[in-house]
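ugh ok fine here u go
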Amino acid sequence: MTDPIADMLARIRNAALARHDVLRLPSSKMKMAIAELLQREGYVSSVSEEEWGPQKRKTITITLKYSGAHQAAFRGLRRISKPGRRVYVGYGDIPRVLNGLGVSILSTSHGLMTDREARNQKVGGELLCEVW
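structure:
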């Protein structure tokens, strides 16, 4: 697999479209950090790392969040920086997603953070994805 983050976002998007309650995917530090950011921002209910399956491999278990009409808490997920085209931004150039209604996730020298946190700390980095 060449882009595990894009695979993670696609799995979350597909699970929400299929109205699944729980999603499991292979674990990594980067994916876990992104999932925790999504939980902190209110796009998913819970995130945990556990051993699952017959071979007891580490997996991330994400419980999706829905509204009363069974609509997902997010409208869309988009991967911005890809392996073939990396996108780096300074803190002054961090785009606002839907005029602040969505959130961008950046990989900075201070770790993964949202666009608001990066602007407040005045750090730029690699623009990983957008969620709205």
